[in-house]
Model the fold of this input.
Amino acid sequence: MAAAPAIAVAGLGRDYGRVRAVDAIDLEVQPGEFFGFLGPNGAGKTTTIRMLTTLLSPSRGEARVAGSDVVDDALAVRRQIGVVFQETTLDLDLTAEENLRFCTRLYGLSRRESKARIDEALRLFGLSERRHARVRSFSGGMRRALDLARGILHRPSIVFLDEPTLGLDPGQRRRIWAFLQKLVAEHGTTLFLTTHYLEEADPCDRVAIVDHGQIVALGQPDELKRNLGRDRIDVRTERPDVFLASVRELTGLEPQRAQHGLSVFVDDAATVLPKLLPLTAQGAEVGVTRPTLEDVFVDLTGRSREAA
Amino acid sequence: MSGIVGAIVAVVVRELTRFQRQRGRLVATFARPLLWLIVIGAGFEKLVPTEGTVSYKQFLLPGLYGMVVLFSTMLTALATVHDREFGPIRMLLVAPLPRFVAVIAKTISSALLGVIQAVLLFPLIWILGLRPSLGALLELLGAIALASFALGSLGMVIASRLRSIENFAGIMNFLMFPMFFLSSALYPASLLPGFLQPLVRADPLTYGIDLMRHPLLRGLYPGNLGTDYTISFDVLVLVLVAAVLIALASLLFGEEEHLGRILLVEPPRPRGRRLPRPALGFGRRESTAAKPVPFREASPAD
Done:
């Protein structure tokens, strides 16, 4: 028999007045899984996290986290979870260590245990040097790292992260992802993470793509991308309308509009690419790359994330 | 239980550390009451004929302690609104603690800050020529603590209802100033006309300041500048106010729908699809994952 799921959700939904923020979500996350909850802004990601972390009660459906119902047994859920919110919850006037100590006090850790955990967390997130510096002097990336450190200080078995990389530059984003992967590998922690940067979710074991409060795709990132085709051929042009018909004619495939122009998804670029080469004479650039989760989203919803 | 104590300690330490680092707040603590004492106190002293041995400034002093406590607790309440959305109170709300712990912890730290700021102004007692006994000083300290706690719990009720701190001007004009002027801080409450008396009596600050005035004016002949109620009545009202408001704030704090559920306004949550126990796997959905799965129509919550 499989282990009990870390998170089990059935028909979960939430309305704000007459606005349906989350329609009806079904999903299951296994212990130790790195799960990505992806979608554009306003898709219902934060509302879902708020329901799973007992901050918001659902309008319908049911959710169990670590085996306990999020409404009927909220305290049992909170005993097992760590939460990193989209907005920082740090005290800018306190030092890194003082911010972490707030958390170890909150969870009733002994003085010795508290010191050991704080040392470890600061080392893990590369903040040991800045231990006694006020958080006000920290960069955005360092603040986020400290937020993460605080969310996991009490060693929760399930950690929820709402847009942990929001507002960070690419280098800082990569560092945060590296921390998260380390956390899963070293502690076997279950991670439930939301992001609207679809392209960065590849390290996740599985992802759910949400749109308008519904899950439109669920699976391993590679599997979702492979369903589109192994290769993506890009036709780079400023005038996609001009080339739309000819791409359709030359390949027999329906091209997808993209920021760079047009894309077609194929299983073997070598057989299709030569057919598109004549377009280069008309001023378009043709190239081959791999499909991304962004492409999966566009394919499923028929629009780009930016337009969403 | 240890978790609750730990959480209260965490919040109190945090508030005290912040207070000590915010110089501006310390300056404001001194500036506002001193301004009132020096300007209003001096002006009124000329106007008010004293019948007893108590000067107007001596009468005003407990009112200023009341003012310090009022402003301090209300500012803490507004900071709580911010803390709940962007600060450490959020951490508290996802920690394995009942909601009331957040309220108690914040009320205690709010009261503590009020007491500290009032105590910093204790030298005024001697400067104004009052010579209280040690016992009377401790009594004053207790009165300030009790008033701070009652006003702190009022602050938590307000904080639980506010969504943003933009309402500060409203709170200041429609709550803090009326509470101060109606409170017997500036004149004995009995002097106000009859139609204002219900408001005077509904103002917890009235009893707080009255309670502070008792030990400070003891042994003097106050004449027309005296206290309004007995010590035991003041204590009783403040304890009741604090208990009721803390309970109310605990109910209201957290999410907006809590109130609905408590008042049974909100219908029970429809359970649509139930989770199987133990829950089943979702292999079916994975296999159809790449193409849009035809989702069931959004059913009205029934």
